[in-house]
Task: inverse folding
């Protein structure tokens, strides 16, 4: 990679790093794993910078890479989500603990691909077509997964938010 | 609407750590390694083919005498940086908390991370009978960090122009049970220090409050001897 391209890459990483971490966190709900996912994704991006730069939407290209990396990582045995019997020691959260925990817990209960659809569509604000393209599934599948995912999230959690506003 | 809900649900973003230079360096090395591997592979194939042709007339000859035994591997010398940082870490903790007792075997500093090359070590210690655990990472250079939407995460500024981020975990009553501090001292001595301190409940019961104050943790991170290069 040329020095000028590396400068572009560096600028992209610095400007998008935080946003990518938040997307990764919504997908995996663990900051350590989110950091790993972002690091892996940025490494891949460096190797495929030419392809990414030529993509219609570089942000979407990177989000797709991140989502696929997460889906791939889920297949590895040591990454599988496991339930534990004991809860960690209670720590005072910053704000509105019930709502935050409720929404994240519900999000975590969605099947991985459905979770990815919800995050890409409703957090990253991608269109149905873009989401379908990124995940390699049909537009119809995105619509149905998105509707199911939102229904699962909306009923208990989002109504709770709305009632408090 | 949903974006805001999710952002609120995510809440505070802990400081992110990414060494962009390290990442680029690693990817360059990887690319170079792949190129070298390809070249080496081609050369090995050519060499094997050549040696087969060369050896063909002598296939029935007596096997050659075995080569003399390879010299025994020399044990690696002790890592001077690791030893220096181990002593510096002990000194930093004892300076910040003069009454602290550090358990034997603590602060063994080991090279850490490929993305973020540096040294890391952990220690168990106690202050006034309250046990705790500290993990320390010394990284050369600057790490990219962000506090995200701050609330628990507080920016830190040191006396020599260091900047950092601090996250303290508290119980509902207000007791601090642990904290994470990252201090970017790259402008001072090209070092970034990360410290994570947690309280440990002793076998005889008691609390798991953090045995150090946040100020003591900050002082420890500011210790000038905790630097990546000598």
Result:
């Amino acid at each position: 990679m040329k020095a000028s391209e590396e400068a572009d890459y560096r600028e992209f990483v610095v400007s998008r790093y935080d946003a990518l971490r938040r997307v990764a966190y919504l997908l995996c709900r663990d900051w350590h794993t989110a950091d790993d996912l972002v690091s892996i994704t940025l490494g891949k991006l460096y190797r495929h910078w030419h392809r990414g730069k030529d993509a219609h939407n570089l942000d979407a290209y990177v989000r797709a890479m991140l989502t696929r990396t997460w889906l791939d990582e889920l297949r590895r045995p040591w990454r599988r989500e496991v339930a534990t019997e004991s809860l960690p020691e209670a720590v005072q959260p910053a704000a509105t603990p019930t709502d935050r925990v409720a929404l994240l817990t519900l999000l975590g209960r969605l099947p991985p691909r459905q979770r990815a659809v919800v995050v890409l569509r409703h957090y990253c604000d991608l269109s149905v077509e873009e989401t379908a393209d990124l995940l390699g599934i049909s537009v119809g599948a995105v619509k149905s997964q998105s509707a199911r995912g939102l229904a699962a999230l909306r009923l208990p959690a989002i109504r709770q938010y709305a009632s408090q506003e | 609407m949903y974006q805001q809900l999710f952002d609120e649900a995510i809440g505070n973003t802990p400081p992110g750590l990414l060494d962009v230079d390290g990442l680029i360096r690693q990817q360059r090395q990887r690319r170079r390694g792949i190129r070298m591997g390809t070249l080496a592979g081609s050369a090995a194939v050519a060499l094997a083919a050549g040696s087969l042709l060369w050896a063909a007339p002598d296939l029935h000859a007596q096997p050659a005498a075995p080569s003399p035994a390879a010299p025994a591997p020399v044990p690696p010398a002790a890592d001077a940086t690791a030893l220096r940082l181990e002593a510096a870490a002990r000194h930093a903790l004892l300076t910040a908390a003069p009454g602290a007792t550090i358990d034997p075997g603590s602060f063994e500093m080991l090279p850490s991370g490929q993305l973020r090359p540096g040294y890391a070590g952990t220690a168990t210690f106690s202050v006034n009978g309250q046990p705790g655990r500290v993990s320390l990472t010394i990284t050369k250079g600057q790490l990219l960090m962000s506090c995200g939407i701050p609330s628990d995460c507080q920016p830190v500024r040191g006396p020599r122009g260091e900047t950092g981020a601090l996250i303290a975990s508290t119980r509902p009553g207000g007791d601090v049970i642990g904290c994470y501090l990252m201090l970017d001292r790259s402008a001072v001595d090209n070092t970034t220090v990360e410290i994570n301190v947690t309280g440990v409940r002793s076998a005889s019961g008691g609390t798991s409050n953090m045995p150090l104050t946040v100020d003591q943790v900050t002082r420890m991170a500011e210790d000038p001897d905790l630097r990546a290069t000598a």
